[in-house]
Amino acid sequence: MFLFFALLTFAAMKLSVFSDEHFMRQALREAEKAKDLGEVPVGAVIVSNNQIIARSHNHTEQLNDVTAHAEIVALTAAANYLGSKYLVDCTLYVTLEPCVMCAGALQWAQLDRLVYGAEDEKRGFMRFGKRLLHPKTKVEFGILEAEARQLMQDFFRLKRL
Prior knowledge:
By secondary structure, this protein is an alpha/beta fold. Helices cover 47% and strands 19% of the residues.
């Protein structure tokens, strides 16, 4: 009987460890790193088989490169890790809705799943519809949205002072 309850407890822990919320919290940690470096606080992690294979945050200021978004840097790291430009069995967790440039890169990568926190009402790709992504890519949003949105609002509030 004890073994049965121990297995149930382990199974419950395993499910919670590999949840969308867990991985989005990892992306939020990356966004905090970006904020500490004076970058727009966007963080991303890419997951394959419940394992983080890439993590990044914005590097546009550090690298003086407008394409160094968290998603792009994470895509490159994941592709290098897998030895393939296609990320067909991967999920990208990103704190902010990707822009059109990043959505295009995700389409080329044939990403399986995209999960983002806060919407980007000005530059987010969803203004143009899901057609910017690969047809098989599943999209979910709103995971830890309040935390992601607050991080962005606080960052830009401080910039305006």
